[in-house]
Design brief:
eight-stranded mixed β-sheet, globular, disordered C terminus, 353 residues, alpha/beta, four-stranded parallel β-sheet
Length: 353
Amino acid sequence: MKKVLLIATGGTIASGYTKEGLAPKIAAGDLLQYVEEYKSFCQVDILQPFNLDSTNIYARHWLQLAELIEEKYARYDGFVICHGTDTMAFTAAALSYLVQNSKKPVVITGSQKPINLPVTDARTNLLDSLRFASDARAHGVNIVFGGNAIAGTRAKKERSKSYNAFSSINYPNVAALCDGKIVFYIDDRDRVTGPAVFYHKLNEKVLLLKLMPGMDGSVLERLFPFYDAVVIEAFGVGGLPEYGRVPFYTEIRRWTEAGKIVMMATQVTHEGSDMEVYKVGRVIKENFHLMEAYDMTLEATVAKVMWALGQEEQENPGPCGRSERFRRLFYKTVNHDMLLYAQGSEEDGDLRQ
């Protein structure tokens, strides 16, 4: 029988009503009493490193979870993390980069309603997650939610209240779960060779900036002292406006000459960026050798920039630089996070190795 570690972190699944609204209050040990069917296929131990609404979870907690998994890795066949839904996609993406090449599954789940309500999705999601974490075909970091298993770098919360809150963006679901059965659409466990690799550093000085009509580069001018990287959510397939008191062109030059990372992404959820299509994207990309996120989710893009900067700084202490090492780290596909770049023909396509 498989041995699974349940890591409770709070979230709606463990919440109860207070005068100020829902807040995490159900003890980790009480979660399992609602899904006692798990006893037929796995043994479960429980840990609770913190008990938070996921709005309050950020990079410090991602590192804590990765370190906990590393510490317990040899003693368990799988891991299930109960987590709030609001930042679950960020946590899943971050753990995909912090815990790589794992033959053991790391499953993140939660719910839209607390587990102790008469009508809730929590019990199904938790039981499905324990079952998925006990399956020999499961590996790596995935979200299990609403009857689907989604690669940790491909998940996005697209519905605020419905039970099917998460979608897999630009990539198929890994598996479907229903009535105690798992159907795998992506079964690539045999490709995982060698030991799991754990990372211990993230650079949190990363800004996600969403463009809006009328915005100019003055926003980057003001933020320059505080960040080592900016991920810009551009319009459409990617580009930057040419108007304004402070042109974006001027600020991009300033950031890149200072060795800071400028990563272009798109506000559009599906199909990804392609800055080569329009002049407003192509000129600035070619002039400054800008990087872009292609078909990655924004959550994965932010987490991967944090991770890649962190690894670069360990090897090259000092101010963040736009080095070839960063490009190699970012453009290496991890947990199915990027397809378009791997299939493309960029001038620096050799970095895909």
